[in-house]
Amino acid sequence: MTLQSITSLQHQLVKHLTKLRQQRSYRKECGHLVVEGKKLIHDIHSQVEIHAILTTNTSFIPDKISYKSGYQVTDSIIEKITGSVSPEGIVAEITIPQQQPIDHYESLVVLDRIQDPGNVGTIIRTALAFGWKGIYCIEGTCDVWNDKVIRSARGASFQIPFQYGSWQQLLELVNNAGATVYAADLGGEAINTLSTPSGPIVLVLGNEGQGLSQEASKNCHKITIPISHAIESLNVSVAGGILMYHLRGKDHG
Q1: What interhelical angle do 236-247 and 117-129 show, nearest 10?
Q2: What is the rounded CA–CA span in Å between residue 49 and residue 51?
Q3: pLDDT greater than 70 at residue 226
Q4: Of 63, 95, 135, 182, which one is least surrounded by beta carbons within 10 A?
Q5: Is-contact 54 20, C-beta < 8 A?
Q6: What is the pLDDT of residue 85?
Q7: Of all residues in the chain, what percent carry a pLDDT higher than 70?
């Protein structure tokens, strides 16, 4: 496909893609998002519709992918769209994958208003690595399609079901499944004394600054990771990784 040329930072498509990266509400309104990088675009092209490819070099476009329109652009345009100082040189505008209902699951990670996109992305990637079957985002959690989340998750966002909802909806889901619900908390039971249940399991990870919500505290069995007294606490994504491995990940080594 012959690529059209764009050289102006003020081009409407450049403004549109930049706004998709910056604004969650605009992504939701358009139903589109921007992804960056040859490998990621190649890995997801069969799962999503690609509306546009923008690249500084045609050799960056993965082989055998289809897209509606293609553009040759400058480094400064890619930098503006991605908000990165050293971008990979190719971006794509894609349709946001449909949220997959989580009705039946063996294991579920719940993000209880986690705000940092790096933490959210790392947790998503770790959950996929350790064989967890879904991510449930309590309302107030960072958007999983935030560009920093996608970058941190390194493609895992497109490979694991996720759902946004309220605590009430989550509790209905948990009760219907007969799941055991754990929550990471400094005052909880040490994981090395824990007997892992045989049925469905849920792990709740709380907000970085405020910890668990009142709903989580009331409805979960609190567990903790014994650590040195020299350190007050672990980063939520680090703690989440250890707990995910301990509760389920050992079966996926």
Answers
A1: 10
A2: 6
A3: yes
A4: 63
A5: no
A6: 86
A7: 98
For 65, phi then psi, to 5°, come to: -110, 150
Distance CA 121, CA 19 (A): 21
Would you put residue 215 in left (φ > 0), alpha (ψ -120 to 50) or beta?
A: alpha
Confidence of residue 27 (pLDDT cuts 50, 70, 90): very high
User: What burial class does residue 65 get, using C-beta atoms within 10 Å of its C-beta: 0-12 exposed, 13-18 middle, 19+ buried?
Assistant: middle
Model confidence, pTM: 0.92
Residues 181, 42: Cα–Cα separation, whole Å: 37
Q: How large is the average pLDDT for residues 153-180?
A: 91
Which residue matches tokens 């040859």? Answer: 38
The tokens of 10 are what? Answer: 């003020």
Strand partners, 53: 70, 92
Chain Cα centroid distance, residue 173: 21
Instruction: Return all residues near 213 (Cβ < 8 A) that are at least 6 apart.
Output: 112, 113, 138, 167, 206, 207
